[in-house]
């Protein structure tokens, strides 16, 4: 099972979404989970984004029950921000010891990422990984369903987190 996670921050609440699927190329999710909190999120601190997001990701992963093992976790962001600078994905890997694939929409100076261009978009996605070869992770993201830059199931996680 592969799970994609996304978090949306409101002023007084937070919504976290989990979309699970069995293969990179799946067009539909095998399971979905949405969790709302009514407490305001922690303040954003540049370079410390993981402190804000990680608790929500861990909480929804704790609620997710499936008989199939989790093969990879896909996060909206970077695994590492640089050679000696852990990002959200690295912290999640340390907490769960499961492969993590980071999919970022913007380039982060210092991060070493594989660029994947999907559909007709000229703008790449920036793929990083831990616990899985980054080339394998990038191939998985490239193979994901959907004709657009953002794969269908990653867009689904974003949509669920935003409450749409």
Main features:
single chain, 164 residues, alpha+beta, archaeoglobus fulgidus dsm 4304 fold, 7-stranded mixed beta sheet, two-stranded antiparallel sheet, 4 helices, 9 strands, 27% helix
SSE blueprint:
Layout: E1 2-9, E2 14-21, E3 31-37, H1 49-63, E4 72-76, E5 80-82, E6 85-86, H2 88-96, E7 100-104, E8 114-116, E9 125-130, H3 134-143, H4 152-161
Helix pairs in contact: 1-2
Derived from helix and strand composition plus strand pairing, the structural class reads alpha+beta
Count of alpha and pi helical runs: 4
What is the alpha-carbon Rg in Å?
15 Å
Taken together, the total number of domains comes to: 1
- Helix/strand order: EEEHEEEHEEEHH
**What is the CATH-assigned architecture?**
2-Layer Sandwich
Strand content: 25-35%
Shape: globular
Largest sheet: 7 strands, mixed
Task: Give me the CATH fold name.
Answer: archaeoglobus fulgidus dsm 4304 fold
CATH C-level label: Alpha Beta
Please identify which CATH superfamily we are dealing with. archaeoglobus fulgidus dsm 4304 superfamily
> Helicity range of the residues?
25-40%
- Rounded mean pLDDT score: 94
Quote the distance from N terminus to C terminus. 25 Å
E-strand count: 9
């Amino acid at each position: 099972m592969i799970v994609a996670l996304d978090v949306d921050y409101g002023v007084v609440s937070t919504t976290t979404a989990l979309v699970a699927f069995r293969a990179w190329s799946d067009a539909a999710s095998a399971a979905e989970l949405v969790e709302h909190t009514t407490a305001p999120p922690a303040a954003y601190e540049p370079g410390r984004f993981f402190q804000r997001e990680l608790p929500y990701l861990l909480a929804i992963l704790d609620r997710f029950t499936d008989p199939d093992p989790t093969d990879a976790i896909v996060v909206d962001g970077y695994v590492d921000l640089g050679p000696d600078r852990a990002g959200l994905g690295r912290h999640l890997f340390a907490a769960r010891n499961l492969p993590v694939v980071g999919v970022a929409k913007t380039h982060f100076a210092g991060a070493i990422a594989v660029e994947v261009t999907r559909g007709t978009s000229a703008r790449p996605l920036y793929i990083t990984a831990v616990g899985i070869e980054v080339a394998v992770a990038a191939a998985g993201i490239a193979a994901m369903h959907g004709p657009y830059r953002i794969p269908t199931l990653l867009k689904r996680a974003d949509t669920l987190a935003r409450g749409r």
